[in-house]
Design a protein that fits this description.
The protein is of the alpha+beta class and 209 residues long. The protein has helices at residues 18-29, 41-52, 56-59, 119-131, 153-166, and strands at 64-67, 70-71, 83-84, 87-90, 98-106, 108-109, 115-116, 141-148, 173-179, 189-194, 199-208. The protein has a single domain (15-208), classed as Restriction Endonuclease, CATH 3.40.91. The strands form three sheets. The protein has a seven-stranded mixed β-sheet, sandwiched between helices. A two-stranded antiparallel ribbon has the order 2-3. A hairpin with a 4-residue loop joins strand 10 (189-194) and strand 11 (199-208). Helix 1 (18-29) packs across helix 2 (41-52) and helix 4 packs across helix 5. The longest helix has 14 residues, at 153-166. The radius of gyration is 17 Å and the shape is globular. The chain starts with 17 loop residues before the first helix and ends with a strand.
């Protein structure tokens, strides 16, 4: 048997599947609602997952979406996972060919009435996991999903955009947080990142819950 060096045969997640994934998330998110003012993001993700798997490309294939799977560490002998992403979409091209989606809560009001914008978690515990290679280390695309708890998507987007601009160097950002053309009729943003070994596009979606 001939053994090929890792990397020679690895493909990227097909770009033409990405609009379908993003559109399906937006479609499924239309009826998404929190049950309490402080619902955990994992509970919201579970409800979103149940809606997505009933949409055509996931219900019947060829796309497959998994809820909160472990990301395998690069060291095959490591005893713990590299992390756990909220959603992972695969399309039959192999275990390391996938589109990862990380979800975070935005604009959550505590029981005391204080507003938590959530921008720090969104950027430092979300986007940075793509930038550092913890999530999707061999892919050049991924997505962030913001659950906007007070329903004000415009304020959520503005807050995230401002925080990203402040952390531009850390994020290896090229340009700015801008509207994406991937689905011209839908509200999707994107950021471009120049990493050491690859370029990275992160798509940003916001759902009012």
């Amino acid at each position: 048997m001939t053994h090929h060096p890792v990397g020679e045969f690895r493909q990227l997640f097909p770009q033409d599947h990405i609009p379908t994934v993003l559109d399906s998330l937006l479609e499924a998110g239309v009826t998404l609602q929190k049950k309490t003012a402080n619902d955990h993001e994992n509970w919201i993700s579970r409800r979103l997952y149940r809606r997505v798997i009933r949409i055509f490309p996931f219900r019947d294939g060829p796309l497959d979406i998994r809820l909160q799977p472990e990301i395998v560490a690069s060291d095959s002998d490591e005893n713990k996972a590299s992390g756990q992403v909220d959603f992972l979409v695969s399309c039959g091209l192999g275990a390391e060919i996938y589109f990862a989606i990380e979800a975070k809560r935005l604009r959550v009001r505590s029981t005391s009435g204080k507003m938590d914008a959530g921008n720090d978690d969104y950027v430092n515990d979300g986007m940075m996991r793509f930038v550092t290679g913890q999530y999707a280390p061999f892919m050049n695309t991924g997505a962030m999903l913001g659950y906007v708890y007070d329903g004000d998507i415009q304020k959520a987007r503005s807050g995230v955009a401002s925080y990203i601009a402040r952390e531009a160097t850390t994020l290896s950002l090229i340009g700015a947080f801008v509207r994406s053309s991937i689905l011209s009729q839908k509200l999707i943003d994107e950021t471009q990142h120049a990493l050491k070994n690859r370029s990275l596009t992160i798509y940003h979606l916001f759902l009012a819950v």
